[in-house]
Design a protein that fits this description.
Structural class: mainly beta
Strand content: 35-45%
Helix content: 10-25%
Radius of gyration: 18 Å
Number of helices: 3
Shape: globular
Distance between the termini: 20 Å
């Protein structure tokens, strides 16, 4: 099959996939809230409602592995400072706190929240996929904070309507 892709080429290609920005939150060993910025979140199944997050080994990974619970908080387009704060680069003197809601720590201003109980974990290299069954979720209207081409972006772009023509690249794309 050959050798794995070069890490730099992989990162550059993967950066062309638009992702939302979330804060994954849980509880530490002392019962205090703990959170980190993550863009590796996806839905898995609608029945039962299931999602996954991919976490690199570290404090939040250890806390999720120990507690067996986490929340995913989808950030609003105006929450770039909050994104940086939970990514370990505190920019906010008075960052909004993670608050306890029905047994999970969440960001109240998030445009979507998923409260999850870990049902399976899969170790891959220096990450673990934590698959969580959603115990409750909620959402608000708003434009999401997005990540594309290694940069934060506001929103998701223009909607394609059914009246728009859709063209596909020809075979020359692969050359």
């Amino acid at each position: 099959m050959g050798h794995p892709a070069e890490p730099a080429a992989f990162r550059a290609a993967a950066s062309r996939f638009v992702t939302g920005i979330t804060v994954v939150a849980t509880v530490d060993e002392d019962g205090a809230p703990l959170g980190m910025t993550a863009n590796s979140f996806t839905t898995v199944s609608a029945d039962p409602p299931t999602v996954l997050v991919s976490l690199m080994h570290g404090r939040t990974w250890q806390a999720v592995a120990r507690s067996g619970v986490y929340s995913v908080n989808v950030l609003h387009a105006e929450d770039a400072a909050l994104c940086a704060h939970f990514a370990g680069r505190p920019l906010l003197r008075d960052a909004p706190p993670l608050v306890s809601r029905q047994g999970f720590f969440v960001l109240p201003q998030a445009i979507a929240q998923f409260a999850c109980e870990v049902v399976q974990s899969i170790d891959i290299a220096d990450h673990t996929l934590f698959i969580g069954e959603v115990r409750w979720c909620r959402h608000n209207e708003g434009t999401p904070l997005a990540f594309y081409a290694s940069r934060l972006r506001r929103g998701v772009g223009m909607e394609i309507s059914s009246a728009d023509s859709v063209a596909y690249a020809g075979d020359e794309w692969w050359t």
